Amino acid sequence: MSELSQRPVAVRTESLTKRFGPVTAVDGIDLEVREGDVYGFLGANGSGKTTTVRMLLGLVLPTSGRVEVLGEPMPSAWRRVLPQVGAMIEGPAAYGQLSGRRNLALFDAMAADGDRASRARRVDDALEQVGLGGVDKRPVRAYSLGMRQRLGLAGALLRRPRLLVLDEPTNGLDPQGIQEIRRLLLELNAAGTTVVVSSHLLAEIEQTCTRVGVLDRGRLVLQDELDDLRRPTGHVELTTPDVGHALGLLGGTVVAHDDQRLLVRDPDPAAVNARLVAAGVRVTSIAAEVRRLEDVVLAATRAGSDRFDRPDRPDRPDRPDREEVAG
Fold it and tell me: CB within 10 Å: which end of the chain, N or C, has fewer?
């Protein structure tokens, strides 16, 4: 049995379903988040992600199915579970007329095990973690969207949670802020916090998460380790200024090319490189091609051109057009 499969399960659902009248928002999903995961919960807007997360936390009751969080049934065990969970769902909640620091102090005071003597330190630590350590006394209603998002994350971190559940945590942040939050989540995970990130942003999930679940129209269509999803394709991708020469040498193993790149049906970059270099072909880069998360998600869903925050053209928009080669 692998070390991965032996890790305790932090979140488990069985046939979890939620209907709102005739509409099935979540349709019989079986989530599994193991302790130590950074779990990316992907789906287009309206796919059922937020409803699912709200059911995990006991904020919405399921129509049918089971939820288990940190080894306890939810929502019946919420008094034991929720003090160990930090969450930010559907945007940060705050009293607009109060300062960020005062908001966090109130949130901390509402915790069942809140220790008043150390409250100020906990608030300061949480603000420092999210980049608001120098925040002044201005009311939250005067905050930018990015500042509000940081404050919501600080609220989720107040109790140093064992499990952190975040819904679109980088919404409203600039690129530097996104990098800071990404780094913070990885640091928290390295220190032992299991993280669940609900998002529609493929690139963000790909750079942060270790395990991925994909929800499409209420159904879980994909769930696996990110490394397994991004396994090699069996092709080698290379760039060279000598495309014509390379085509002549590699012949029928070339499955696609443009004026600088070739995609070769061969799993061994070293062997391809040695053959080309020996023949005088200048190779500027070469590597085994791996599956991209975008390609995997699109293959697993019925998404249209405006889903999953992707460009209109699905075939590797960051690369030049390639001529497809038969055979």
Answer: N
